[in-house]
Write a structure and sequence with these properties.
Layout lengths: L14 H26 L10 H26 L2 H15 L9 H26 L3 H19 L2
Helix pairs in contact: 1-2, 1-5, 2-3, 2-5, 3-4, 4-5
Length: 152
């Protein structure tokens, strides 16, 4: 098993605290999503089918990109190259949103995830030696983005 996939105490965050934070963000996003659907008929401006991905993306994206891909690249390349490759793939991954957002928003997502968010999450994973702190930050990032959309 990749070491990045294991829960580890990081700073004051025990594995239980990390799981609790992820659950709290999960519930918060679920509640905020419900309010969005009631108010607009859409989930954060997107079709309701986007709902499950919204709830689980911070976990499965961190497992795929920082837990698996970053770990694999680190076996072959330097830290910087591994972060660049993983982040580019993470940015490209967001092309999947082409069915949910307009082209301008899609380009912003790809640039943000590939050039800002991806590298930060890679570095955070590398420094903490676990993806779970990055998952918490990923949930926090999505929660803030959804608040901005909801209260626009």
């Amino acid at each position: 098993m990749n070491d990045y996939l294991k829960f580890k105490k990081v700073w004051i965050l025990t594995p239980i605290a990390q799981i609790t934070l992820m659950v709290l963000f999960f519930i918060s996003i679920a509640i905020l999503g419900k309010f969005c659907i009631i108010k607009t008929g859409l989930l954060f401006g997107k079709p309701n089918s986007f709902y499950l991905e919204t709830l689980f993306a911070p976990i499965y994206e961190e497992i795929i990109f920082r837990g698996i891909l970053l770990g694999l690249f680190m076996k072959q390349y330097s830290l910087i190259k591994s972060i660049v490759f993983t982040s580019i793939l993470f940015g490209i991954w967001h092309l999947k949103n082409i069915f949910f957002v307009d082209i301008e928003e899609l380009i912003k997502q790809i640039i943000y995830t590939g050039l800002v968010f991806g590298p930060v999450m890679c570095y955070l994973t590398y420094k903490t030696k676990t993806i779970w702190i990055a998952s918490i930050v990923h949930y926090l990032n999505n929660f803030i983005m959804f608040l901005l959309v909801y209260f626009k």
